[in-house]
Design a protein that fits this description.
It holds the Pfam family MFS_1. Belongs to the major facilitator superfamily. This is MFS transporter. InterPro entries: MFS, MFS_dom, MFS_trans_sf, MFS_Transporter. It contains 16 helices and no strands. By secondary structure, the chain is mainly alpha-helical. It has a single domain, classed as MFS general substrate transporter like domains (Growth Hormone, Chain: A). Helix 2 runs antiparallel to helix 6, helix 5 packs antiparallel against helix 6 and helix 10 runs parallel beside helix 15. It is globular and about 55 Å long.
Length: about 400
């Protein structure tokens, strides 16, 4: 089915402005993903609690995602995409401002939950919109990861600068809030596609859908939900503990330890650009996923077993960011959406619901492991990477034999 020319013209109105607005929200989200982990020591001192308790607070982000993803994903197919983008921004604003008011642990945990809800609302309104205005192609969603990585690159430098000058750590949260306010003004005035336009776009995509059928489709669905968990866990595990691992196990200084996470972000941004180019040239998404997951496993092994060689650790972090955080999760979501082209919101919600389980469980698991040693807490990421690699290999086999 072809989209009517008039409808196509309407959909393209302000497309670039809409896309840029959505991408800027993921710069903010890049801050939100790691801002608690990057300020663990400062927050622990502010609250007079050990790192284990701060890690527990961070797990609240996963709880918020668990609460919200299935709800926001399903409602995004029924209600306005713009509504959920606005909700996500407002929740992140309350989180950023609230965290610098020196809350109690229960209040801080509630704010972390709110950040998780913000994440789910943004995903429900954003991924669906970008896929639909790009006629079912997922390359636009890869750029979301680029802006997330840009935020993840900027924030550690900001945190390290504040620490080195002995300035108040809360300025990192204030900067996040300021960006939200500026972009919120733009969001209120930009137009999103309406329901009639979205219906035509989704019907057109349905005509070209392909993938496993019957029982194999059920198995593929289960595997993709599992990949939603492992792909998110792989990144969260790394970003939460790499700085402390570099300081305590590799004996890096504070600036060098924060810089290794910035290198991860540079790798991620590089991966986004290369993956965007490859997907535009119709390279197989599943072949890319296999290559990326295998590369991430190798990079983690280098960090664990040869990380005291500074240049090698830096290179491994760069490569890991390229492979694990350069759009691999978003590519997995695109594969999932192609299985269910008429239910983008629901599929996005389900996929990231399993990612939210990772957001909740990883801080708890690693918090317990860190009581034994930071090295043990960090090394568990290698197991996650291996499981994710097996999943995408089996998934590729199912698609070949559909």
């Amino acid at each position: 089915m072809e989209i009517a020319p008039g409808s196509q013209t309407t959909v393209n109105i302000n497309k670039w402005r809409l896309s840029l607005t959505l991408y800027l929200n993921y710069l903010i989200h890049g801050f939100g993903i790691i801002i608690l982990a990057q300020n663990m020591t400062a927050l622990g001192n502010s609250w007079n609690v050990p790192l284990k308790t701060v890690s527990f607070v961070i797990s609240g982000i996963g709880v918020g995602r668990l609460i919200a993803y299935l709800i926001t994903g399903s409602l995004a197919d029924l209600l306005s995409r713009k509504l959920f983008v606005v909700i996500g921004m407002l929740c992140y604003l309350v989180f950023a401002v609230g965290m610098v008011m020196n809350p109690s642990i229960p209040v801080a945990y509630g704010l972390a939950i709110l950040a998780g809800i913000a994440n789910s609302a943004l995903d429900a309104g954003t991924y669906t919109t970008l896929v639909e205005i790009n006629h079912g192609k997922g390359d636009g969603t890869i750029l979301l990861k680029g802006f997330m990585s840009l935020g993840e690159f900027i924030l550690p430098i900001l945190v390290a600068t504040l620490a080195n000058h002995e300035w108040w750590f809360g300025w990192s949260f204030i900067v996040m809030a300021a960006i939200i306010v500026l972009n919120f003004i733009n969001v209120l005035t930009v137009r999103f596609p309406n329901h009639a336009e979205l219906k035509q776009l989704n019907q057109a995509v349905s005509q070209t859908s392909h993938g496993p059928r019957g029982f194999k489709k059920v198995v593929a669905t289960i595997l993709l939900l599992g990949y939603g968990y492992t792909s998110m866990a792989l990144m969260i595990w790394f970003t939460q503990w790499i700085t402390l691992f570099a300081q305590q196990q590799l004996h890096f200084g504070e600036t060098a330890a924060h810089f290794i996470l910035s290198l991860y972000s540079i790798g991620s941004i590089t991966g986004v650009i290369i993956l965007f180019i490859l997907l535009n040239r119709a390279v197989s998404e599943l072949k890319l996923l296999i290559a990326l997951n295998l590369t991430a496993v190798v990079a983690l092994a280098i960090l664990l077993f040869a990380g005291r060689i500074v240049w090698l650790a830096n290179l491994a972090s760069l490569i890991f960011g390229f492979a694990a955080a350069g759009g691999a999760m978003q590519t997995g979501l695109t594969v999932f959406m192609k299985l269910f082209p008429s239910h983008h919101g629901m599929i996005t919600g389900a996929f990231y619901f399993f990612g939210s389980i990772a957001s909740f469980t990883v801080p708890l698991i690693t918090g317990l492991l860190s009581a034994q040693s930071i090295a043990l807490a960090f090394s568990g990421d290698l197991i996650v990477g291996l499981v994710g690699t097996v999943i995408v290999i089996v998934l590729a086999g199912l698609h070949r034999t559909k």
